[in-house]
Amino acid sequence: MKMTYGKLNTLSDQLALKLQSLGAKPNMFIGLLMDDKSFDLCVGVLGILKSGAAYVPMDVARYSSERIKFMIEDAEMRMLVSVTAHTKMVAGLGRNLENIV
Predict the structure, then answer these.
(1) Which domain holds residue 82?
(2) What does the chain look like in DSSP terms, one character per residue?
(3) Which residues pair with 32 in a beta bridge?
(4) What CATH number does the domain containing 52 carry?
(5) Does the N terminus or the C terminus of the chain have fewer Cβ atoms within 10 A?
(6) Residue 90 CB neighbour total at 10 angstroms
(7) Total of domains in the chain
């Protein structure tokens, strides 16, 4: 996929609308479970911010599953934006999270 500002804007708008339809709003934290320095990371950050919510970055390379669970519980997250590669890990977090891939 060719990365352009137009594509970034379109995809982040789509993500923002999806998040808003699921209840994203100001003063809400949404987890962002992505690989470093990816186009998907940029889409995730902008999409969450455009939805009105705040993002909480989570790096699977740096944080253990227990640390990520703590972050989710501490911030009272109900939603998590991730990539397909992390779907299995998200399912193993044992919490009712809406996972947007």
Answers:
(1) 5-100
(2) ----HHHHHHHHHHHHHHHHHTT--TT-EEEEE--TT-HHHHHHHHHHHHTT-EEEEE-TTTS-HHHHHHHHHHTT--EEEE-GGGHHHHHTT-S--EEE-
(3) 57, 81
(4) 3.40.50.980
(5) N
(6) 18
(7) 1
Rg value, the chain, Cα: 13
| Residue bearing tokens 């193993």 | 92
- Distance between CA atoms of residues 92 and 29, nearest Å: 20
